[in-house]
Specification:
The protein has 261 residues and is mostly beta strands. The chain contains two helices and 15 strands. It has a single domain, classed as Lipoprotein localisation LolA/LolB/LppX (outer membrane lipoprotein receptor (LolB), chain A, Clam), CATH 2.50.20. The longest helix is centred in the first third of the chain and has 14 residues. The N terminus is likely disordered.
Length: 261
């Protein structure tokens, strides 16, 4: 993910896990940069996921998928998600090239139509395959995509956390702002609140069951997104994480989406 170099002591410094800064904006940036820096160097990863969609009445539908991700030094990550079930979406593949300083690129292969569809920048706020995750939620969260403001320290879900507000700097975001609770212990998100274009609370995403890999990298195994306006929700449960599996750029070729199995 994109690095952000900070002068010391002009802007911020990190001392024994505590972030010090002159202003709320600088401190918010410093905390977010520290979170980014701690997750550098994983290279590539694969995992399996179960996505449970619930409507306002609590009725559920289940989708199974596989994900591959490639870390791109100096830019955003590349991710490929392939759905295996249910039958009506089996073979659907979704490819993202995330970027820090320009619009993300996203494509979806629809097997029923046997064609690759590019997701336009103006549609990034739309729902990802009917879930409560938007297309922009699926891409990697690069530091330079946002501006920041530290709000306070707070304990949430028994975790001492920094509370940082961030504001999307890219066009066509469906959000005016996001409030993020970041664990002081592992520098990973505990909760994110998303506010819509009218600045009303739209969704809350909670992260739980964190596991550490390679002695350094933390991944939440359960992500629960609740839409407060529609009363719908989506729970994403991840498993079988593997790192440094030898994935290359060619494994994320948009021209090969139709051949993904």
């Amino acid at each position: 993910m994109q690095k952000h170099w900070i002068a010391i002591p002009l802007l911020a410094l990190t001392l024994n896990g505590a972030v010090l800064a002159q202003t709320a904006e600088e401190k918010g940036l410093a905390i977010s940069t520290e979170m980014d820096q701690r997750d550098l160097g994983w290279g590539n990863e694969v995992s399996d996921s179960t996505m449970v969609l619930r409507n306002a009445h609590g009725q559920e539908s289940v989708r199974e998928n596989r994900m591959k991700a490639l870390e791109v030094p100096g830019d955003g990550d590349k991710t490929l998600v392939v759905f295996d079930s249910p039958r009506d979406i089996s073979g659907t593949a979704f490819l993202t090239f995330s970027h820090a300083n320009k619009a993300d690129e996203q494509w979806m292969y629809l097997p029923a139509l046997k064609r690759v569809k590019r997701i336009s920048s103006s549609n990034k706020s739309g729902p990802f395959l009917g879930s409560e995750f938007a297309y922009e939620d699926i891409s990697s969260q690069e530091v330079d995509k946002y501006s920041y403001k530290y709000l306070r320290d707070e304990v949430v879900d028994e975790q001492d956390s920094y509370v940082v507000e961030r504001y999307p700097q890219y066009k066509h975001s469906g959000y005016t702002r996001q409030i993020t609770w970041i664990s002081k212990e592992i520098y990973q998100p505990v909760k994110i609140e998303f506010y819509d274009r009218k600045n009303a609370l739209l969704k809350t995403l909670t992260f739980s069951d964190y596991q550490q890999y390679l002695g350094k990298y933390w991944r939440a195994l359960v992500l629960d997104m609740v839409n407060h306006q529609t009363k719908k929700s989506t729970t994403l449960t991840r498993s079988n994480y593997q790192f440094q599996t030898g994935l290359k750029e060619r494994d994320f070729d948009r021209n090969s989406l139709k051949r993904v199995r």
